[in-house]
Protein backbone atom coordinates (compact mmCIF):
# COMPACT_ATOMS: atom_id res chain seq x y z
CA UNK A 1 0.00 0.00 0.00
CA UNK A 2 1.15 3.50 -0.77
CA UNK A 3 0.96 6.43 1.62
CA UNK A 4 -1.90 8.85 0.95
CA UNK A 5 -0.85 11.82 -1.07
CA UNK A 6 -1.08 15.25 0.44
CA UNK A 7 -3.77 17.38 -1.20
CA UNK A 8 -2.41 20.11 -3.49
CA UNK A 9 -2.47 23.66 -2.12
CA UNK A 10 -5.37 25.89 -3.14
CA UNK A 11 -4.81 27.58 -6.49
CA UNK A 12 -5.01 31.08 -5.01
CA UNK A 13 -2.83 30.42 -1.96
CA UNK A 14 0.23 32.66 -1.87
CA UNK A 15 3.32 32.33 0.23
CA UNK A 16 4.67 35.11 2.42
CA UNK A 17 7.52 35.70 0.00
CA UNK A 18 5.11 36.66 -2.76
CA UNK A 19 3.48 39.42 -0.72
CA UNK A 20 4.05 43.03 -1.65
CA UNK A 21 5.71 44.85 -0.07
CA UNK A 22 8.14 42.09 0.93
CA UNK A 23 8.18 40.95 4.54
CA UNK A 24 10.49 43.05 6.62
CA UNK A 25 10.24 46.06 4.34
CA UNK A 26 9.62 48.91 6.70
CA UNK A 27 8.34 52.36 6.04
CA UNK A 28 11.77 53.42 4.83
CA UNK A 29 11.54 51.22 1.71
CA UNK A 30 8.92 53.38 0.03
CA UNK A 31 8.79 56.34 2.31
CA UNK A 32 6.72 56.64 5.44
CA UNK A 33 3.00 56.69 4.88
CA UNK A 34 -0.02 56.47 7.09
CA UNK A 35 -1.85 53.17 7.41
CA UNK A 36 -4.44 52.73 4.65
CA UNK A 37 -2.93 55.42 2.41
CA UNK A 38 -1.85 54.78 -1.18
CA UNK A 39 1.76 54.74 -2.42
CA UNK A 40 3.14 58.05 -3.61
CA UNK A 41 3.58 56.89 -7.21
CA UNK A 42 -0.05 55.75 -7.53
CA UNK A 43 -1.41 58.85 -5.83
CA UNK A 44 0.60 61.07 -8.16
CA UNK A 45 -0.63 59.38 -11.32
CA UNK A 46 -4.24 58.65 -10.39
CA UNK A 47 -5.33 62.30 -10.16
CA UNK A 48 -4.04 64.24 -13.15
CA UNK A 49 -1.73 61.83 -14.97
CA UNK A 50 -2.67 58.56 -16.60
CA UNK A 51 -6.23 58.43 -15.32
CA UNK A 52 -7.00 62.15 -15.36
CA UNK A 53 -9.15 63.87 -17.98
CA UNK A 54 -7.11 64.92 -21.00
CA UNK A 55 -8.16 67.56 -23.50
CA UNK A 56 -10.72 70.34 -23.42
CA UNK A 57 -13.70 68.10 -22.69
CA UNK A 58 -16.41 66.51 -24.79
CA UNK A 59 -18.74 69.54 -24.75
CA UNK A 60 -15.99 71.84 -25.99
CA UNK A 61 -14.97 69.36 -28.71
CA UNK A 62 -18.56 69.00 -29.92
CA UNK A 63 -18.95 72.76 -30.02
CA UNK A 64 -15.71 73.16 -31.99
CA UNK A 65 -16.82 70.39 -34.36
CA UNK A 66 -20.06 72.27 -35.03
CA UNK A 67 -18.16 75.46 -35.81
CA UNK A 68 -15.85 73.55 -38.16
CA UNK A 69 -18.79 71.92 -39.94
CA UNK A 70 -20.52 75.27 -40.53
CA UNK A 71 -17.34 77.01 -41.67
CA UNK A 72 -16.41 74.21 -44.07
CA UNK A 73 -19.95 74.00 -45.46
CA UNK A 74 -19.95 77.72 -46.27
CA UNK A 75 -16.96 77.08 -48.50
CA UNK A 76 -19.39 75.32 -50.83
CA UNK A 77 -20.50 78.71 -52.13
CA UNK A 78 -17.01 79.31 -53.53
CA UNK A 79 -16.87 75.78 -54.93
CA UNK A 80 -20.19 76.31 -56.70
CA UNK A 81 -18.99 79.55 -58.27
CA UNK A 82 -15.76 77.95 -59.46
CA UNK A 83 -17.64 74.96 -60.85
CA UNK A 84 -19.98 77.23 -62.82
CA UNK A 85 -17.02 79.22 -64.11
CA UNK A 86 -14.65 76.35 -65.02
CA UNK A 87 -17.00 73.58 -66.13
CA UNK A 88 -17.27 73.06 -69.90
CA UNK A 89 -20.52 74.01 -71.62
CA UNK A 90 -22.68 71.32 -73.17
CA UNK A 91 -23.97 72.66 -76.54
CA UNK A 92 -27.63 72.14 -77.40
CA UNK A 93 -29.68 73.02 -80.44
CA UNK A 94 -33.43 73.26 -80.87
CA UNK A 95 -35.59 72.31 -83.82
CA UNK A 96 -39.28 72.07 -84.66
CA UNK A 97 -40.53 68.59 -85.51
CA UNK A 98 -44.21 68.18 -86.40
CA UNK A 99 -45.00 71.48 -84.80
CA UNK A 100 -43.23 70.72 -81.51
CA UNK A 101 -39.95 72.08 -80.23
CA UNK A 102 -37.34 69.37 -79.58
CA UNK A 103 -33.88 69.93 -78.14
CA UNK A 104 -30.89 67.86 -79.28
CA UNK A 105 -27.26 67.58 -78.35
CA UNK A 106 -25.27 69.40 -80.99
CA UNK A 107 -22.30 67.06 -80.59
CA UNK A 108 -23.53 63.60 -79.69
CA UNK A 109 -19.98 62.29 -79.29
CA UNK A 110 -18.77 65.18 -77.16
CA UNK A 111 -17.39 64.65 -73.68
CA UNK A 112 -18.51 67.93 -72.19
CA UNK A 113 -20.94 66.25 -69.80
CA UNK A 114 -18.14 64.07 -68.44
CA UNK A 115 -15.99 67.16 -68.08
CA UNK A 116 -18.68 68.82 -65.97
CA UNK A 117 -18.63 65.94 -63.48
CA UNK A 118 -14.85 65.72 -63.54
CA UNK A 119 -14.47 69.43 -62.85
CA UNK A 120 -16.71 69.17 -59.82
CA UNK A 121 -14.82 66.12 -58.50
CA UNK A 122 -11.40 67.75 -58.93
CA UNK A 123 -12.55 70.94 -57.24
CA UNK A 124 -14.01 68.86 -54.42
CA UNK A 125 -10.69 67.09 -53.92
CA UNK A 126 -8.85 70.42 -53.82
CA UNK A 127 -11.30 71.87 -51.31
CA UNK A 128 -11.00 68.73 -49.19
CA UNK A 129 -7.21 69.06 -49.07
CA UNK A 130 -7.35 72.75 -48.16
CA UNK A 131 -10.04 72.35 -45.50
CA UNK A 132 -8.26 69.40 -43.86
CA UNK A 133 -4.95 71.29 -43.80
CA UNK A 134 -6.50 74.43 -42.31
CA UNK A 135 -8.41 72.50 -39.64
CA UNK A 136 -5.31 70.53 -38.70
CA UNK A 137 -3.18 73.66 -38.37
CA UNK A 138 -5.79 75.37 -36.22
CA UNK A 139 -6.61 72.33 -34.09
CA UNK A 140 -3.70 69.90 -34.05
CA UNK A 141 -5.04 67.76 -31.24
CA UNK A 142 -7.86 66.42 -33.39
CA UNK A 143 -10.48 64.19 -31.86
CA UNK A 144 -13.43 62.17 -33.11
CA UNK A 145 -15.97 65.06 -32.99
CA UNK A 146 -13.62 67.28 -34.98
CA UNK A 147 -13.13 64.65 -37.70
CA UNK A 148 -16.88 64.04 -37.91
CA UNK A 149 -17.53 67.77 -38.14
CA UNK A 150 -14.99 68.09 -40.94
CA UNK A 151 -16.56 65.24 -42.93
CA UNK A 152 -20.12 66.50 -42.40
CA UNK A 153 -19.09 70.02 -43.37
CA UNK A 154 -17.47 68.73 -46.55
CA UNK A 155 -20.60 66.84 -47.54
CA UNK A 156 -22.85 69.82 -46.85
CA UNK A 157 -20.44 72.05 -48.76
CA UNK A 158 -20.62 69.75 -51.78
CA UNK A 159 -24.42 69.81 -51.74
CA UNK A 160 -24.41 73.59 -51.43
CA UNK A 161 -21.90 73.92 -54.28
CA UNK A 162 -24.04 71.72 -56.49
CA UNK A 163 -27.13 73.84 -55.95
CA UNK A 164 -25.23 77.11 -56.32
CA UNK A 165 -23.71 75.99 -59.62
CA UNK A 166 -27.08 74.92 -60.99
CA UNK A 167 -28.61 78.21 -59.89
CA UNK A 168 -25.86 80.26 -61.56
CA UNK A 169 -25.91 78.20 -64.75
CA UNK A 170 -28.28 78.45 -67.69
CA UNK A 171 -32.01 78.05 -67.19
CA UNK A 172 -33.24 74.50 -66.74
CA UNK A 173 -36.16 74.94 -69.16
CA UNK A 174 -34.31 74.05 -72.35
CA UNK A 175 -37.42 74.19 -74.54
CA UNK A 176 -38.13 77.78 -73.56
CA UNK A 177 -34.49 78.58 -74.12
CA UNK A 178 -34.57 77.05 -77.59
CA UNK A 179 -37.61 79.15 -78.48
CA UNK A 180 -35.86 82.31 -77.27
CA UNK A 181 -32.66 81.78 -79.27
CA UNK A 182 -34.41 80.41 -82.36
CA UNK A 183 -34.40 77.30 -84.47
CA UNK A 184 -30.97 75.79 -85.13
CA UNK A 185 -29.12 78.22 -82.83
CA UNK A 186 -26.65 76.69 -80.36
CA UNK A 187 -27.06 77.40 -76.67
CA UNK A 188 -25.64 75.94 -73.44
CA UNK A 189 -27.34 73.21 -71.48
CA UNK A 190 -28.09 73.67 -67.78
CA UNK A 191 -25.28 72.84 -65.40
CA UNK A 192 -26.00 69.27 -64.31
CA UNK A 193 -24.13 66.84 -62.09
CA UNK A 194 -24.60 63.43 -63.64
CA UNK A 195 -22.31 61.42 -61.33
CA UNK A 196 -23.64 62.05 -57.83
CA UNK A 197 -20.64 60.23 -56.42
CA UNK A 198 -18.62 63.39 -57.07
CA UNK A 199 -20.34 64.87 -54.02
CA UNK A 200 -18.20 62.60 -51.84
CA UNK A 201 -14.87 63.86 -53.20
CA UNK A 202 -14.66 66.73 -50.72
CA UNK A 203 -15.54 64.88 -47.47
CA UNK A 204 -13.47 61.80 -48.32
CA UNK A 205 -10.38 63.83 -49.25
CA UNK A 206 -10.70 65.92 -46.09
CA UNK A 207 -11.21 62.87 -43.89
CA UNK A 208 -8.28 60.87 -45.28
CA UNK A 209 -5.83 63.77 -45.27
CA UNK A 210 -6.75 64.95 -41.78
CA UNK A 211 -6.37 61.47 -40.33
CA UNK A 212 -3.01 61.11 -42.08
CA UNK A 213 -1.74 64.46 -40.79
CA UNK A 214 -2.89 63.64 -37.28
CA UNK A 215 -1.15 60.28 -37.37
CA UNK A 216 2.11 61.74 -38.69
CA UNK A 217 2.35 65.14 -37.02
CA UNK A 218 -0.22 65.10 -34.24
CA UNK A 219 0.76 65.33 -30.55
CA UNK A 220 1.85 62.14 -28.86
CA UNK A 221 0.65 61.06 -25.43
CA UNK A 222 3.52 60.64 -22.96
CA UNK A 223 4.35 57.08 -22.09
CA UNK A 224 3.52 56.18 -18.47
CA UNK A 225 6.34 55.62 -16.00
CA UNK A 226 5.69 52.63 -13.77
CA UNK A 227 8.53 53.26 -11.35
CA UNK A 228 11.62 55.29 -10.61
CA UNK A 229 14.12 52.44 -10.65
CA UNK A 230 14.63 48.78 -11.50
CA UNK A 231 12.68 46.22 -9.55
CA UNK A 232 14.72 44.22 -7.07
CA UNK A 233 13.47 40.83 -5.98
CA UNK A 234 13.22 40.33 -2.21
CA UNK A 235 15.96 38.23 -0.60
CA UNK A 236 15.22 34.56 -0.19
CA UNK A 237 14.22 33.50 3.27
Topology:
Elements: H1 27-30, H2 40-48, H3 58-74, H4 76-86, E1 91-97, E2 100-105, H5 112-138, H6 144-168, H7 174-181, E3 186-188, H8 201-217
Antiparallel strand pairs: 1-2, 1-3
Helix pairs in contact: 3-6, 4-5, 4-6, 5-6, 5-8, 6-8
Describe the fold and architecture.
- The protein is 50% helix and 7% strand.
- It is built from eight helices and three strands.
- Strands 2-1-3 form a three-stranded antiparallel sheet, covered by helices on one side.
- Strand 1 and strand 2 (100-105) form a beta hairpin.
- The two termini are 37 Å apart.
- Mean pLDDT is 78; it is low at 26-34 and 37-53.
Defining key terms:
single chain, 8 helices, 3-stranded antiparallel β-sheet
Alpha-carbon Rg, integer: 35 Å
Give me the secondary-structure category.
Answer: mainly alpha
Tell me roughly what share of residues is in helical segments.
40-55%
Largest β-sheet summary:
3 strands, antiparallel
Q: Which percent band covers the strand fraction?
A: 5-15%
Kindly state the number of beta strands.
Answer: 3
Amino acid sequence: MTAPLNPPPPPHERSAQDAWPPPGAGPGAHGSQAPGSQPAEYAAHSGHGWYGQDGPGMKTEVREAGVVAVAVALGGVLLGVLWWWLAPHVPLVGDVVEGKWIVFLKDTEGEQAVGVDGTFALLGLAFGVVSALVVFLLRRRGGVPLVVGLAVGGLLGSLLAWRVGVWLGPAEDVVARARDVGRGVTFSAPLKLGAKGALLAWPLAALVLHLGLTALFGPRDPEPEFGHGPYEAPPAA
